[in-house]
Amino acid sequence: MAEAPKEIWDLVERYERERRAFESGSYGEADTRKEFIEPLFAALGWDVVNRRQYSEAYKDVVNEYSLKIGGSHKAPDYAFRVGGNRVFFVEAKKPSIDISRDSPSAYQLRRYGWTAKLAISVLTNFRHLAIYDCTQQPSDNDRASAARTLLVPWKDLIERWTEVEDLLSNKAVNQGSLQRYFDQASRRRGTSEVDGIFLLQMEQWRIALARNIAKLNPTVSVNELNEAVQQTLDRIVFLRIAEDRGIEPYGDLKDASTSSGVYARLLDIFTAADTRYNSGLFHFKAERDRSSSPDRLTPGLTIEDDVLKDIIGSMYYPTSPYEFSVMPADILGQVYEQFLGKVIRLTDKRAVVVEEKPEIRHAGGVYYTPTYIVEHIVEKTLGPLLEGKTIRAARNIRVLDPACGSGSFLLGAFEYLIRWFTKAHSESGSASSRQVLFKDANGELRLTLEERKRILTSNLFGLDIDRQAVEVTKLSLMLRVLEGETSETINSQLKMFAVERALPDLDKNILCGNSLVDSSVISVVELTPEEEYDLNPFDWAVGFPEAMAAKGFHAVIGNPPYDVIEKDRGEASWPHDKLREYIPSRTDYEAALGGKLNLYRFFLVQSSELVRPDGYMGMIVPMGLAADISTRNTRKHLFTYLRNPTLDCFPQKDNPYRRIFRDAKLSTMVVAGQKSGGKLTAQNQITTRVFPGNDLKDESIDNVLSFGDLQLLNSANAPVPLLAADEWEICRAIHSQPHVRRLSDLGTSYVVTRGEINQTTYGRYIVGAEEKEGYEPLLKGVEVGTFELRDTLSQGQREMLNAKALRKRYPGKTAPLAPRIATQRITGVDERQRLVCAVVSSQMWFADSTNSIVAAEGAPLPLEYLVALLNSDLMQWRFRLTSSNNNVASNELLDLPIAVHDPTSPTEHQLIEKVMKSGNRIAALKAQARAEKTSSGAQRIGRMLESAWVSLDDAVYDLYGLSKRQRNLIERRLGAAPLVAQLTDGDGDM
């Protein structure tokens, strides 16, 4: 148990000596902070007063107690941070308040922590130190003890120091104490994350507004209804957040809802906001210098008072559990990303229905990119892009997100640029730099409002097909531009810079359109006016003329949609049916073709064209891009047009708490690189980093490969193996040996196919296991074992094929002749034995859950040798290197390195014979084991089997010339869980 430091002993002794004075009402909160709370957290290793002189973005502790609105605090006293990210709040009270029983103090703190989506937060006056679980939704009816996980009175602080230190010390937090707490808490019942609750409330507001508007405004169309509801909610949310941040007078919206005529009063507030902010969100009259059309729809609507009173009332204390002053931009983005996944429909009788958009339904939901992944991609693109740049040059860069959604990547880029320009200007010290900097209430240098507006309009650009998403992106960016401002600071800066409005017009930066379809679609695909409206064609040179005239954007970033265009046996539904018709007309999309067409591949190819020479590109996409045969064209295209790309891979998909997208069972990767001249050579390099979970701080397995290395594995597909450098040296050595060939290189000697009976297509002919005339054996993958066909099945039951009826319907349908090799087609990705193979000597049909290997007459290698080789440890290890899912595909079998006879080497011939004999012995011993009835006999056969396996693996290692060190490395890798996890669909179909 750690002993409390001397500083804590001194604090406790002082409090004990002067306790009566401290707990009198005259000893205030400010003195408590300075004399007790700040020294307490300094003893826990936090730089509370920023002695290290870190910049505002990276200092340990941010003091927020200067922010008061309407006489009350609208932010916690302290925000404790790691790497610039908030990890917990501390709310201070004076010792005269008994915080062990004071429920309003606890509710205040919990609102802060819960809204900011923090694991815990601290309420203290030194008299007590209370730690609260902020994963539970707070209520104003809760007692002070609700969600409290720790309460330490001052007199127990020394004795219980270890408890406090293990959770709250700077060292513990940096080592993940709060993340572990959050992961555990989020799995407990009763937890409710703020984004989920706020989303639910937003959806309730939407349905209430939509029903009321549809009822009272019978001429409003469905598109107008969607727009009116979205705009009204956006305006209310923006102004309510602005109130809590001190930008707008607190309570304006609430005051407007206290009597009749609520909507008319709201329109007055909205109109005033237009005058103040110059934002498209509040654009009601035409202006000479604004390209967008004003809103002529919502001012003419009728909305009942009760609906608006309910919405507005639920956003204020004490009813509201939210403290909007601390709600992070990414939380609001996550809510809106989900919110935009649904659309309002009207029935024939004008009843309102809210349903998932078709493209969201096909994709299996909406998945918001975690903030740390956004920051990672921004760093990998803007970091090298801005390195060595002057301020003047940096002012001209253009960053694009071609599928911006709710704006998370543009927000991430905005944050990065704010930090970069703040640092660059502060280091410059020039007169022009001093004009764009000022010191805030805490004495920290910040960019002026005008400079932040300039960054928005000069450096950031976005496109999305969803009109509502475009407005949400603008909303998110506007809120960020005003972050840290108050009504007073805005007014003073507007006067200083002689400007009238606080926000920029983003109508030329954030546009609505289809990134993949331009106006040429009209001459290629037959479209109704409604379909053309929904398809939303977009011409890049028209929408972003300056960027395209300058050869493109300096950086293209994002998380493109992963929706498979073709489903249900090649059929495509709206809007993908029109896109599929259009694609053949675009020769520049050829690199995105292959297998099931997936949108993300088209976005990758398109983005590589949109980025200018020597610009940077970074996106998160399904990990199937690394090795799937269907993605080979896109893979080669990226290696051609990106200089030394990096692939940061996150293969974990089965544990929702360790994968990137918690709600999507999907393995992902971040691909990033600088645009090159477009020449693919064997020397082109690719860097891979493979992380075991979703944490970039975890130790990764790294490697640098050349394109020639990839071709060594398969010249046509060029899969990227996800392995360490020492493993790659083994792989390269195996494939480079003169007597080794890929199975596909052996010509027509071997035919490798998927099992001939598709269980869906021919399901009507699959029958029970009873013996009947015309019924023939059907082999399914679950029946295939290693060197055997299993007597006992782990799942399902044996079935037969009504071959007589099948041949009558399909006269040409036949099964290949025996013998042939059968392999399981689906194997658990965590299994040591991924290749499960047996020789099938009797005639039977193979289901499509198997693979079939048939040897032609005169084939150079016996099937018994091949099956032994495939079942060996060496081939298990080699297969896992390029397997990106739980499939064992026939093309993957064809890529395996097979040692063939070398007539000039008797030793190799002997080793091939030894491999085959060892395999035959294992098959024979397994047959004996199935027949053995005594335990002693089974143990004896088991020992012989172990020896036979060792003999097989030793012979295979000798055949491929591997050293003892290399063998040990392979065995260690096989003993560990593989890094490459299975994908639902190799190409990321969610």
TrEMBL record:
Its EC number is 2.1.1.72. Gene3D superfamilies: 3.90.1570.30, Vaccinia Virus protein VP39. The keyword Transferase applies. Keywords: Methyltransferase, S-adenosyl-L-methionine, Transferase. Residues 61-138 form the Restriction endonuclease type I HsdR N-terminal domain. It catalyses: a 2'-deoxyadenosine in DNA + S-adenosyl-L-methionine = an N(6)-methyl-2'-deoxyadenosine in DNA + S-adenosyl-L-homocysteine + H(+). GO terms for biological process: DNA restriction-modification system; methylation. It comes from the Bacteria. This is site-specific DNA-methyltransferase (adenine-specific).
